[in-house]
Amino acid sequence: MLRSLFTASTGMYAQQLNLDVISHNLANVNTTGFKKGRAEFQDLLYQNIINPGAPSDDGTQYPTGIQIGLGVRPVAVAKFFTPGDLINTGNDLDLAIDGDGFFQVTLPDGTIAYTRAGNFRIDRDGRIVTNDGYPIEPGITVPADALKITVGADGTVTVLQPGTVAPVQIGTIELARFINPGGLQAIGKNLFIETDASGAPTTGTPGTEGRGRIVQGFLEMSNVNVVEELANMIIAQRAFDINSKAVQTSDEMLQTVVALKR
Amino acid sequence: MYKGIYISMTGMGMRQYELDAVANNLANINTTGYKRQQFASRLYPLLSGRPYEPNAIYQDARAQTYFGTQYIDTSQGALKQTHNPFDLAIQGEGFFAVRQGDKILYTREGSFTRDRENFLVTQTGLKVLDENNNPVIIDGTKIEIGRDGNILVDGNTVGRIKLVKINRVIHVGHSLYDGVEEGQANGQILQGWIESSNVNPMNEMVQMIQAIRNFDFTQRVTTTFDQLAQRAVSEIARI
C-alpha cells in the first residue's frame, strides 16, 4: 500500500505526543518547582530504492540515490532545569534554591527522592516535611517551643527559643546535585528519582561545588513560559493538520488507482 | 499501445514516490535539525534509450521507469532559543560528528545532553566528537560553548567541538546523516539554541498538490489507452 499513508500517520502521532507534553507543561504552569519538558523527534528509517553510488548509465553513478523516508518517531521528552521565577512569600519554611541542586526527601519506602519545590511544612512531630508529609533528608526536627526558624544560605537551620537570645542550630539542609538532571525520572508530586542516566547525586552543603544557595521566604515557580507553550501548541496543531492532509492526499491517490479498473 | 499504458504507469509510480518524500518531510516538520528531501522526478526523455539496439522500442518504455534523483536540501532551518546550555545549533554550514559503533555519522540535531559519565551525547546516547574525533567530556558546572566550538568549563578550555563540512549527504535515519568529510565547516555554533527543521509547509503543500494532480492526469492517459484497447477489441472486430 502507499508508504506515504503510514509516513503521514507517524507525523500525526508525533504531533499528538507533542501536544500531550505541551498540555502537561501548561497544566503545571503554577506548580511550585515544576520543570518543563519538550518532546524531541527524530526521523525514522530510510528505504533505499537506489543506493547512493550505484551505477546509472554509461559508467556514471547516482550521487545520492533514492531514499524514501518512513516518517518520524518521538525519541525523548527532554526536561529543562532552567530556573523558574522566585517569588517572595515571606513564609519561614518556603525555601528556594538559587542555582543548581535539589532538596532531598525520604519516601515512605525509605528511598530518597529529589525536588525543587521548597514549600515545606512542620508535621505534628515537629519534623520538616513536604506537603505530602515526606520528611526532608537529613531529618530536621523543630522544637515545639521554637519562636522563629531561620534557614541560612548555606542550609543551616536555627531556631530562637523563648528565654534565649542566641539562636540554636537544629540541623543543616543538604542539597543534591546531578551531573545530568535531564536524566532524572519524574514520579509526580514534584518529585524526581535517580536513574542510570542521571548518575548518582553528589550531596553537600548549599553554595559549594556548584550547588545553589538556599533563599528563605521564597518559592521557585515553574519554568513554564506560557507564551512559548502557546506558540508550540499552534505549531503542533498546524503540523498535525498538514500531516492529515498528506493522509488525505494518499487516500485520494489510492482512490484514483482503484477507479482505474472500471 | 501497451507501451503507452506502461509509460503512464511509471508516471503514476513516480508521483507516489514524490508523495512519499513530501509525507516524510511533513512528518518531520518538528524534528530538530531535519533537512528536507527533495524528489527531483526527472523522467528520462523518450528517445534516451539506445536507438541502435534492436529492441529499442521496449527500451524506451523501460527508460521511463528510471528515477530522476533526490537531493537533501541542507539549507538553514529556523533557530529557536531554549536557554538550555546543552542545546547547540549550527548557524551556517556544517554538521556535528557523532560516533555510532565504529562509524562516524553526522547530525544537525544539537539537542544534546550529558550522560552519567559526563560525555556529551545526543538524545539517543551517541557521543559527540571533538576535533580529534574523541568523545567530548564535560565535567563541571559552568559550561560555555563558543561560536567556534570551543568548550569552556568553569573557565578552562577543555576542547573544541568538531564541525565538519560533508559532501554527498544521505539520510541514515534517527536524525543522522552519512557523507564524505571535506574539512572544517565555517558555520558557527550557538549555545542555548536549537535548529528547527527546514521544512516549509507551503512548499510541501504545493508539491503535494502537484503530485496528486499529475497523478490524476497520468491516470487519464492510462484510462484513454484502456479505452483505445477496448475499441480495438470490440469495434474493429465488428467489421
From TrEMBL, chain A:
Keywords: Bacterial flagellum, Cell projection, Cilium, Flagellum. GO terms for biological process: bacterial-type flagellum-dependent swarming motility. Residues 215-259 form the Flagellar basal-body/hook protein C-terminal domain. It comes from the Bacteria. One of its GO terms (cellular component) is bacterial-type flagellum basal body, distal rod. InterPro entries: Flag_bb_rod_N, Flagellar_FlgE/F/G, Flg_bb/hook_C_dom, FlgE/F/G-like, FlgG_G_neg, LlgE_F_G-like_D1. It is found in: Bacterial flagellum basal body. Residues 96-159 form the Flagellar hook protein FlgE/F/G-like D1 domain. Residues 7-35 form the Flagellar basal body rod protein N-terminal domain. It holds the Pfam family Flg_bbr_C. Belongs to the flagella basal body rod proteins family. This is Flagellar basal-body rod protein FlgG. It comes from Thermodesulfovibrio aggregans. The lineage of its organism: Bacteria, Pseudomonadati, Nitrospirota, Thermodesulfovibrionia, Thermodesulfovibrionales.
TrEMBL record, chain B:
Transmembrane segments: none annotated. One of its GO terms (cellular component) is bacterial-type flagellum basal body, rod. Residues 89-152 form the Flagellar hook protein FlgE/F/G-like D1 domain. Residues 191-233 form the Flagellar basal-body/hook protein C-terminal domain. GO terms for biological process: bacterial-type flagellum-dependent swarming motility. InterPro entries: Flag_bb_rod_N, Flagellar_basal_body_rod_CS, Flagellar_FlgE/F/G, Flg_bb/hook_C_dom, FlgE/F/G-like, FlgF, LlgE_F_G-like_D1. It is found in: Bacterial flagellum basal body. SUPFAM superfamilies: Flagellar hook protein flgE. PROSITE patterns: FLAGELLA_BB_ROD. Belongs to the flagella basal body rod proteins family. Keywords: Bacterial flagellum, Cell projection, Cilium, Flagellum. This is Flagellar basal-body rod protein FlgG. Residues 5-35 form the Flagellar basal body rod protein N-terminal domain.
